[in-house]
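Researcher: Batch entry, complex prediction.
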Amino acid sequence: MIELLSLTPFMIFLLGAALLPLIPQGSPRALLSLLIPVASAYMIWVTPDGIFGQVSLAGWELSLLRMDGLSRIFGLIFSLAAFLALLYAWHLRDTVQQIATLLYAGAAIGATFAGDLLSLFIFWEATAIASVFLIWARRTEGAYWTGLRYLVIQVGSGVILLAGIILHYRETGSLAFEAMTLMSPASYAIFLAFGIKCAFPLLHNWLQDAYPAATVTGTVVLSAFTTKMAIYALARGFAGTEILVYIGAVMAVFPIFYAIVENDLRKVLAYSLNNQLGYMVVGIGIGTPLALNGTAAHAVVHILYKALLFMSVGAVLFRTGTAKATDLGGLWKSMPVTAIFCMIGGASIAAMPLFAGFVTKSVLLSATIYEGHYIVWGMLLFAAAGALHYCAIKVPYYAFFGKDSGLRPKEAPWNMLLAMGLAAILCVFIGAYPAPLYALLPFEIDYQPYTFDHVLTQLQLLVFAALIFALDLRFGYSVRPKQSITIDFDWTYRKFGPALIKALRTLIRGTWGHAIAQANYQFTRTLRNLEGAHGPTGVFARAWPTGTMVLWIAVLFGGTLLLSFI
Amino acid sequence: MSMDRIIYTLGALGAVLLAVDFVYHRHAYTAIEGIPGFYAIAGLLLPAILLLGGIILKFLFGRSEDYYGIRDVAAEAFPADQVENGEKK
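Model: Structure tokens for the complex:
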């Protein structure tokens, strides 16, 4: 047991990633990759609470395996997400993506169990570097640039984290990763680093930029880890920090406007991912045991239904070569099973009773109202009504129903269906019977989601919201998807910033060139004037007697004599 | 199922759910939430705000797909070698 504990789950992924290329491509390799998350989940399951895996690195004591309620539930759901994503990618014959997936999942799990800030930093950066290959694996010009932008921001988050850690170490003399208060530059830097990966408002654009650019399977992998690792880190480090309540509320609301107007369905899902993170951030900000339980539970089901939605849209992309609402429609005729799974994912995110989102979102909403955050509660309600539209209605409607695109692709391959089926079953199971999920939560929980009131109010909200959207679709007053994009805050660094630099460059170059030209002109003119006056043919030359030169030499000698005396 | 039938079904369902609010007293945490029909009104109002916001957003910030040029995936085709439409293999 002790030997087992000195290993930590991320090492299994590391080992797996090292062995994988040696196994022949195809089913044997896919099978091995599936065993890795299973082994990791087993290890997490059997490890008791405590701190294990202590190693000494350059004089620092690092602890690689801190097991408690919070890290256990995140470790388990990350393992499950890795399993589902690898099953979904069974057909894949791309070594780069296979290894990147394992390293990425392993790094996220490593960060979850990191007991000290230094190992957290190492895993934090490892997720950035491993995951970018899932974007580059698309192997197009656009994906290359998108990957670069993603990498700069992700690595930047790590650098800010490192700066915070160094300041924190100078302040406290400790590297332990414990709860912090937001007061010193150190804690602000760490908070900012977490906030970047958590896609706080205005720090969020990397997410909607990168996730739709990844490969079919890559997006499913990406959707699970980075942001939820940041949620975990925030819950560990900044639980009860009040500003998070407001950050989370803004985060829950503004992305849904983008989600309803975007055309690329994977981008719609990326915005909705951002909005769901808002709920979790609000929970962390409230910081009561009920709220933190809500955050952890919501992270679990969110990973499941979001993966399910990305998988179903990914299957459509895999079969048709497009994920744009304008190009799709009517696919239920040839992809009925995928359509059903997509709708289950949609029902889960919209928190329909009997689906997974309901039993976790209601915990968070209750925690918010218990603490008297009425405005925030109203914003979350708004976001809940929005979630119904952009995911539960928009994504299935435009992909599988709506106007017939004439596309009749084959149903998704068996491995994709199996992965989606497992996720869908879990969504329904957790929704109908939340007790096993509640038992895994970090704190004791005494909460009953299925009261008559909860079910009634949620159904009222959803039915009337659905009515509005149905009326809207019927009469077509609102935004129909168009072949367009909607610019977001990333415009500042993708268009405005470069344009500003270009303008400054032109200005500086112009000014400099002008200044040099002017100086040159003036200098030349002065020389020419001097030459004109004093040159061999100049006016003065004509008038000067030879004696002038002798006189000047005498003056020069006189000066030298004077200087040597002083 | 036609859109009209969906609308009538949702309308009928909504009416029933709303009716329940007037015969059953809910346990509310705030005064406003306890008003009968609060969630129904919220369900009607919030999506309307959302759709309006969407129209404004699209009007102000909608751009063509090639706005960011070749440095974005929006305008490029998904690589054909990563698509399997079941015709070959």
